[in-house]
Amino acid sequence: MSDRDPFAGEGGHSISTLQIRPRRTKIIFHIVGCLLVVAFASFSVGCKEAPKTTARPPEPVKVAPVVQKDVPIYAEWVGTTVGYVTAQIRARVSGYPISRSTPASIRTR
Length: 109
Hints:
By secondary structure, the protein is an all-alpha fold. The chain has a domain at 1-49. The chain contains 2 helices and no strands. It has helices at residues 15-46, 104-107. The longest helix is centred in the N-terminal third of the chain and has 32 residues, at 15-46. The protein is elongated. The chain starts with 14 loop residues before the first helix and ends with a helix.
């Protein structure tokens, strides 16, 4: 048997090594080229002068006269309440209510 690599070319280098090096350098050149293009584009965009804007007049502000008066302080919350003592309410008679009589003090409100 021979000690020679069966994939070796004329110079004794393996064919796979000869194929990898040009491909790797080509990829590196592409990456460096893309980075240079991106860097040039970003620097050229930043060098432009800002457009000059004209100063707008101030916006009119609506005002109200100052009035001193009492303001009620209140708050509303959502919640549930539970009584101190829970009692069962049972009807003493059977049937359905037909009408309800309300006291005069409630009707006048």
